[in-house]
Amino acid sequence: MIANWEFVLLRHGEPDWSPVIERGAKGWGFDLAPLSSKGVAQVEALADAEPFGRPSLIITSSTVRTLQTAHILAARWQLPLEVAFGLHEWVPDLSLSWSSHDQVEKAEAEFNRMQGLWPPGENLGWETLPMLRARVDREIQSYSKHKGVLVVSHASVIRALSGRSLNYSEYTQYQLGA
User: Fold this and answer.
1) Helix ranges restricted to H, 2-63
2) Does residue 119 sit within a domain?
3) Residue 98 belongs to what H/E stretch?
4) Which of 10, 24, 45, 87 could form a disulfide with 171 if both were Cys (CB 3.0 to 4.6 A apart)?
């Protein structure tokens, strides 16, 4: 159990991409993917274990997979749940017009190769690491008056803030300004 924590970052459970791929989702349409049955089981096991203690509040990204994760926990623990739009996934195309998972993977590979930074004077079209950190820090900062906030979000967001790569339903402690 984590003692005296302000924020815990939790990656959502395993998603099921098949419904959005089958329907030809584009852009933020990929954010409509629900949890898989395995993802639901992962989150339910986390709820039963309470590995970091009970938070006072759960905040979540607005995607279906994070909302479903947060809802399971909030319902089980009878806690308030708030949607924090700024916790959304990394943006692979700032025009919000990507049309395939392949495009996202290509942009992500470039992001990783360039360590999240555009070359000086260039705009590569994806959200940079400083943009991502600033967006998410602003959002989390607005909850700093609370103690024990569970932040349900995405691998890219958690990695940008903590430097840690988490698997589905894994968590890490986070302090603002750390």
Assistant:
1) 18-22, 37-49
2) yes
3) none
4) 10
Strand extents, DSSP E, 7-84: 7-11, 57-60, 81-83
How far, in Å, CA of 144 to CA of 149, rounded?
9
Structure token pair of residue 22: 């089958």
* C-alpha neighbours within 13 Å on the C-beta side of residue 87: 30
88 close to 152: Cβ distance less than 8 angstroms? no
Strand residue runs (E) in the chain? 7-11, 57-60, 81-83, 149-153, 171-174
Contact 57, 141 (CB under 8 A): no
Q: Is residue 125 part of a domain?
A: yes
Higher pLDDT, 135 or 50: 135
Q: CA-CA distances (angstroms) from residue 63 to 34, 150, 177?
A: 9, 16, 26
- The answer to whether residue 66 sits within a structural domain is yes
Confidence bin at 76 (pLDDT 50/70/90): very high
Token pair recorded at residue 171: 């968590």
**What does the pLDDT look like over 5-26, one tens digit per residue?**
789 999 999 999 999 989 988 7
Residue-range definition of the domain harbouring residue 120: 7-174
Helix (H) or strand (E) holding 112: helix 101-113
pTM given for the model: 0.91
As a whole-number percent, the residues of the chain with pLDDT over 90 amount to 75
